[in-house]
Amino acid sequence: MYDAAMQLAVIGLGAMGAPMARNLLKAGHSVTVFNRTAAKAVDFEKLGARCAGSPRAAAVGCEILLVNVSDTPDVEEVLLHPETGAALGLAQGSLVIDCSSIAPGTTRSIAAKLALQGVGYVDAPVSGGPEGAEKATLAIMCGGSETDFARALPILNLLGARVVRVGPVGCGQVAKAVNQVVIAGTYQALAEGLVLAASAGADPAQVLQAISAGAARSWVLENRAGNMLRDQYPPGFRLALHRKDLRIALGEAQAAGAHLPLTQLVAAAEDRLLQSGHGAEDMSVLARQVREDAHIPPGPFPSTQT
Fold it and tell me: Which of 53, 84, 108, 171, by CA, is between 20 and 30 Å from 217?
């Protein structure tokens, strides 16, 4: 860990970026924040942060800049916009850590452009949801040079419980795409299992209790099965964002000549949900589509316990 407080900047104060910024402030670092919806940044002044009016202003004087925005074009805008981009304010020798989930190819392109001005780059997408961001227990998968990763590690250790360098720049984004493919199947399988339980006459809640200590145990089962049982999907990790991540994963697969049939199935189910207006709900809303296909009416699964 660094011996002294560092000058940090955080761009993006959404469900993930806001708790990350708070954890950096709690650790004693000096933090400047920028959010495109300025109202979200105001509360951070009360916590001791400085609010900047643009990504460029946020980057001035910072040693490490963290980015956590929604999609590939958003990262390009906040970093490379010709008038307000953070790259215009970054000094030689500074470091960018991008915790967004974006296309690996664009990540490599951005890193190459920043390298021309002597700025290091680590792509560090995360997994663990808003809960993990609050508790600083995120899994963080990183791409970057060994030198840049070593510089980023003390800061990332304040945000996550496991931080792994996967390879050079872009490999963190590849790992995140793999993560999203795996959880796509897990959410889909859990939803199908609950539908099977209900359709075959067993109590879904009791079935979950029976299987939760065995091989079916997972983060998804432990943290999102309750949503599916209640048929309520409050915002956590938005379905629209997961669908964006699957677009990236399927694009990488196509370029590599890999076939991902399960991922394609889940992507199609998510497209149907998006068309029905469910993009802002937690991705456990996949269960709604599985239920509809099985002709199970909306509402909590009924209990069979007497």
Answer: 171
pLDDT for 142-162, tens place per residue?
999 999 999 999 999 999 999
**Residue written as token pair 């970057």:** 144
- 272-301 pLDDT tens trace: 999 999 999 999 999 999 999 999 999 999
List the beta bridge partners of residue 157: none
Can you spell out the DSSP letters for 221-261? HHHHHHHHHHT---SSSBHHHHHHHHHHHHHHHHHHT---H
**Catalytic residue chosen out of the listed positions 26, 113, 135, 176:** 176
Torsion angle of C-alpha atoms 158, 17, 130, 77, degrees rounded to 10: -130
User: Does some domain include residue 306?
Assistant: no
Give the distance, in angstroms, between the CA of residue 54 and the centroid of all CA atoms in the same chain: 23
Query: In the listed set 152, 168, 184, which residue is the last one of a domain according to the structure?
Result: 168
The identity of residue 146, as a single letter, is E
The answer for residues whose C-beta is within 8 angstroms of residue 141's C-beta and 6 or more apart is 124, 125, 126, 127, 164, 166, 172, 175, 176, 179
In this structure, are residues 24 and 155 in contact, taking their beta carbons and an 8 Å threshold?
A: yes
Say if pTM beats, i.e. exceeds, 0.70: yes
Residue 153 · residue 163 · CB < 8 Å: yes
Residues 21 and 163 in one domain: yes
> Would you call 46 a catalytic residue per the annotation?
no
| Domain membership flag for residue 1 | no
Query: Is the pLDDT confidence value at 305 over 80?
Result: no
**Per residue in 139-154, is it b (16+ CB within 10 Å) or e — as a string?**
bbbbbbbeebbebbbe
Here the CATH number for the domain that contains residue 41 is: 3.40.50.720
Q: Mean pLDDT, to the nearest integer, of 185-195? A: 98
